[in-house]
Design goal:
23 helices; alpha/beta; single chain; 8-stranded parallel barrel; binds pyridoxal-5'-phosphate; 645 residues
């Protein structure tokens, strides 16, 4: 596909280009008006609600961008899909036990998410997985008893005590033993409480899985018991006469596992451990496969940001694996638990931010006049530009790079004046642009042209912080789908990378995936004066919110929970204003009142020395206090900028 300003374009072309029907299936689409829509259930079939309309509603309610939208309907739908997936696999394979989901709290601890999961999870008996005291504290208070709780992570005495209280309240609370000394502690505390706890053991599965989180798998994983430790734990339980408490086997192979065969291998090993524990006389009854169910962030089907299986494949594989290991041994089918976090919440959040401006690397003039007194390299560049059609693009680009570098060296040596330097840069850009125009946007570039797209890409300045809102994109190079939310009836003929508001060269998005090709830039539309250009980052509901940090003191964005009613009305259910500058300053231990007071003293001095009038002092201090109460992000009104220029 080649895209130019006058390419014929349609919503269908955008759907293909951005692969929205792959990664956004069931959740997002582009309508024929060229708007990205969220898909929810209506009275008769799916309804499409344009995000642009939701943004309009936000503006009317006084919220600026960036915002995080949480689509409650999508959360409901993905939880339901997970359960249906297992229900179908159980029915089709005559499996004789049940599936139970638990939500791992670490994936999104936000109150609105947890409360919604409690509400919609009630008929499905969704439980919680907690990996720390704080997570258990919030899960316990939210989960109606009797509920299912899985306690992972290292557990001190208080963590164990809180779990024992949960047991007393009537919850089915599994203490998953991660290390040998934890079991000693649990046995002692259970005796003190006179409670027989439900115990699970987390095994280390030696099979390593692929993907970005491969460290959690394999025998060097820092979690879980080795086979030797497992045996020691069995002995310890037996001698404490508590073997009957051992009722669950836990394994977690890692997150975002791209390859179903890794899942099968890991699950097989887990089933062998399960069978061994049954043989040792433990009652067992439940197998917990942890997380790992991947989200398709790119639609490519390839590692690491996509997956080579469907939800149905995942459910069927786990059940078939259990049957093939346990049926020959005549072991009863255990209840199945998964701790699918990412797959439950990723869909439901979308970050919307606006573009504040762009920087383009364009030649000012297509065919500048070359004065005779120019040095040979400038003539060479002009020649390349004129006769490009007859040249091999890769060679031509390499030659242009060489000329440009020589000219830059001459400038540094004082042998080239500013006018000629500018002419040289201009010619180089004209050559590079011409080469780029003959290459299809979805083509992988040959080695000689590597770097061309990156070098020529526009920079789009986005009103957001990568560190706050998309930390995994920065930390581990994860790809999230990013798409303009409107204008898909126009060709996106510019190529851009995104730079955020932080003054950090890592504060950027330059890792995209189009049609299975990784690339540093994304086709985008040119900005229109006086109009906001809004980009959406999709599938970012898992992990990003609490991993995000305050780099450059950009804080939490506004968060809005949105429900779409069955007749298509947008219901803003909960609104949480983002951090104010005051909030951010207090996170780093400043007292905003004290800051104002310090500034007041400086301003008062300025009045005494005649730099400010008393009235200016008042205005300034009012302005400062008001600014501290405001949003940390850019207050951008494109119309205002337009009038200025
Ligand atoms: C992180 C984690 C999960 C969640 O994994 P996902 O891939 O997000 O589903 C589940 N269980 C444990 C023990 C974890 O550490």
């Amino acid at each position: 596909m080649k895209i130019s300003p006058d390419s014929p374009w349609s919503a269908e072309k955008s759907r293909q280009l951005y692969a929205i029907d792959h990664w956004g299936a069931d959740c997002f689409s582009i309508n024929d008006k060229g708007q990205v829509c969220v898909l929810t259930d209506g009275r008769s079939g799916k309804i499409e609600t344009p995000l642009a309309g939701i943004v309009q509603g936000l503006h009317e309610r006084g919220y600026g961008l960036p915002v995080l939208l949480r689509f409650v309907d999508l959360l409901d739908a993905s939880l339901a899909r997970l359960h249906q997936g297992f229900a179908r696999a159980i029915a089709s394979q005559n499996y004789t036990n049940v599936y139970q989901g638990v939500f791992p709290v670490k994936v999104n601890q936000q109150r609105q998410v947890i409360e919604e999961l409690v509400r919609i999870g009630k008929p499905l008996q969704t439980g919680f997985e907690a990996g720390s005291k704080a997570e258990l504290a919030l899960a316990l208070a939210n989960l109606p008893a009797p509920g299912l709780l899985i306690l992972n992570g290292y557990k001190d005495r208080d963590f164990i005590d809180l779990g024992l209280w949960a047991t007393r309240l009537g919850h089915r609370c599994f203490f998953v033993i991660e290390s040998p000394d934890e079991l000693t502690r649990l046995i002692a505390r259970s005796k003190a409480f006179a409670i027989r706890p439900l115990i699970g053991v987390r095994t280390k599965v030696s099979a390593r899985v692929g993907g970005l989180w491969t460290e959690t798998s394999g025998d060097r994983s820092s979690f879980g018991l080795s086979p030797q430790q497992l045996l020691a734990a069995l002995d310890q339980l037996k001698s404490a006469r508590m073997l009957d408490c051992l009722q669950l086997l836990h394994c977690h192979l890692g997150s975002q596992i791209p390859d179903i065969s890794d899942i099968r291998t890991g699950a097989t090993e887990a089933c062998r451990f399960y069978a061994a524990l049954v043989a040792e006389g433990a009652p067992m009854g439940t197998i917990d496969f942890g997380g790992g169910l991947a989200v398709d962030y790119t639609g490519s089907g390839e590692a690491p940001d996509s997956r080579n299986y469907t939800l149905e494949d995942y459910c069927c594989t786990l059940i078939a694996t259990i049957r093939s290991c346990l049926d020959p041994l005549q072991i009863e089918h255990p209840a199945i638990i998964t701790e699918s976090g990412r797959a439950t919440v990723a869909d439901s959040s979308v970050l919307l931010f606006n573009i504040l401006g762009t920087m383009c690397f364009e030649a000012d003039e297509e065919s500048p006049v070359i004065p005779d007194d120019c040095c040979p390299q400038i003539h060479q560049l002009a020649e390349l530009h004129n006769k490009l059609a007859q040249r091999d693009p890769g060679q031509a680009y390499q030659q242009a790079l060489t000329c440009r570098d020589q000219l830059r060296n001459q400038f540094r040596a004082g042998l080239l004046d500013l006018r000629h330097r500018a002419l040289a840069e201009n010619l180089f850009l004209a050559v590079a642009r011409k080469i780029l125009q003959v290459i299809p946007v979805d083509a992988e570039l040959p080695t000689e042209l590597k770097g061309l797209r990156r070098n020529m890409a526009d920079i789009y300045y986005g009103n957001f912080s990568v560190f706050q809102s998309l930390p995994d994109s920065w930390a581990i190079g994860q790809t999230f789908p990013l798409v303009p939310i409107d204008r898909h009836t126009e060709p996106p003929w510019r190529e851009g990378m995104i730079s955020d508001l932080t003054c950090d060269c890592d504060g950027k998005l330059d890792n995209f995936n189009l049609a299975g090709t990784r690339r540093p830039t994304l086709p985008l539309h040119p900005l229109r004066p006086g109009e906001d250009y809004i980009l959406g980052v999709f599938l970012m509901g898992a992990y990003q919110e609490t991993l995000g940090d305050l780099h450059n003191l950009f804080g939490d964005t506004h968060t809005l929970n949105v429900r779409i009613t069955p007749d298509g009305q947008v219901d803003f259910q909960q609104e949480i204003a983002g951090d104010s500058i005051n909030d951010l300053l207090s996170y780093v231990e400043y007292d905003p009142q004290q800051l104002s007071e310090k500034l007041r003293i400086t301003a008062e001095k300025a009045v005494r020395t005649g730099k400010l009038t008393a009235e200016q002092r008042r205005y300034f201090l009012d302005f400062y206090r008001e600014l501290l109460q405001g949003y940390s992000y850019f207050n951008h009104d494109p119309k205002e900028d337009h009038h200025d220029t």
